[in-house]
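A quick aside before the break. I want you to see a complete sequence-to-structure record at least once, exactly as it would be stored in a machine-readable document. Don't worry about memorizing anything.
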Amino acid sequence: MIDNMMLITLFDSLYPCWTREMLVKEGVDMAALERLVEEGLIVPEDGVYSLSETGVAEFRRIALENFIEEKPGEAPADRVRSARAGGFLKLLNAAHLQRWGIKQYYTSPALEIFPKARDEELFAVNKDELAWPYMNGEAELEMEEKFPLIGLRGRGAGMAADAEKAGAWLAEKAGLTEIFTPDILYVCRYDYLQYENFKGHPNDPLRLINTDRFLFVFDSGREEDELREIGRFRRWVMFQRRVMLPGFFDIDTQEQDSICQLLLVSDSEARAKESAARLARFGAQIASGVQPLDIWTLSEEALAAVRDKREIIWELIPDIGHSVSRTTACASCRC
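That is the input. The structure line, written in tokens, reads:
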């Protein structure tokens, strides 16, 4: 059972919102929780518990006294979605070990993407045909001209020079970027001991180099929403690949592939299969112009049903997910 004094520290920045069911599974004394509610430290709203402003201050006090590094979680606007993300993250973490790496999770990270695009500019559907009009837009074409895909050979220019070039260009294009906020970003730091000597890249605050990245977005089941999220993912990948981390995004410093996947998450297995079939009809058009690009659908139902914990994430996803787009590294990544 969770110690009453430490109960409040469950509500950290990774898990700011909890449902009663989640708290019971965690071993929380619900009577103690209700006392914190009465004291004004925790707020129950729409079936979801989160810290009040007073609760955030109390979290900081307890963390300081007990040498706890986690930061207090502040409830976002969509508390129900936040609690769902927390529940999903618990399932995902429990389903695989990743003993030779480090699991690092972010909830609702703000990822910059380029170029900004309205829906009508982003995608166009005609029965089984899918197009991405933004790819022919002035901003996209300028980025492609200014930042060609350089592959491994392009690393010779130096990270500082690349960062300076990107910074100057982005200062001019500040109004043309927007934010992509997946529900969960999982950065898998595989074989991290092999990369200890790498000191980092000035354009890499999340330390994405030498990692595999899995971006999870809750799927509404509506095709236009799915294509909107895929469009955001496409633009984020190419922005990282061309502008922010050229030569490093797809291939790590040991010249091994670095994987990047978008996973659309449904509540039920039936819906995950339905979404995969609906999107797969577009074939190669899903990833047209931005390969390599990996997209899957996944269900919370299948994840909750995992009993045989997988050793690594790369065993888990193919076993319980449904592939929409799988591509191998393109030649430009290695040349």
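Two observations worth writing down. The two ends are 55 Å apart (CA to CA). The chain has two domains: 7-75, 92-333. We'll return to this after the break.
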